[in-house]
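Suppose a colleague, Dr. K., hands you the sequence of a protein chain of 130 amino acids and asks what its three-dimensional shape might be. Before reaching for any lab equipment, you can write down a predicted structure in token form. Begin with the sequence itself:
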Amino acid sequence: MLSKTDISQLIGLLEEQYPEPVCALEYQKDYELLFAARLSAQCTDARVNTVTPVLFGKYPSLESLACADISELEAIIHSCGFFRTKARDIVAASAKLIGEFGGRVPDEMGELLKLPGVGRKTANLMLALL
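The predicted structure, expressed as tokens, is then:
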């Protein structure tokens, strides 16, 4: 196990090497990053970046995603793997963002974890980038 000193030194080295880390996922809206991160589970960022323009072109708002036909959404995201679960999570999370968070992606860990399909890894990504 690393000591606190070792961890601090490691973090310092990483900050030197990567002073301004860039997210490989392409997005324009906060919820697009959230759903791109969901799609990236067991999938490459490159694949997600080819799927999301089609996804967000067909469903340009949270409202349209919340009302999306699951089978149509599955067809769009099929190449990302686990498409049934991911499609269901995207529709449910869209509805929850609208109904409980006023259409905004929350900026607190506990609130993010309430969203379907969002675990600690995705929540930490959101908190780091937003």
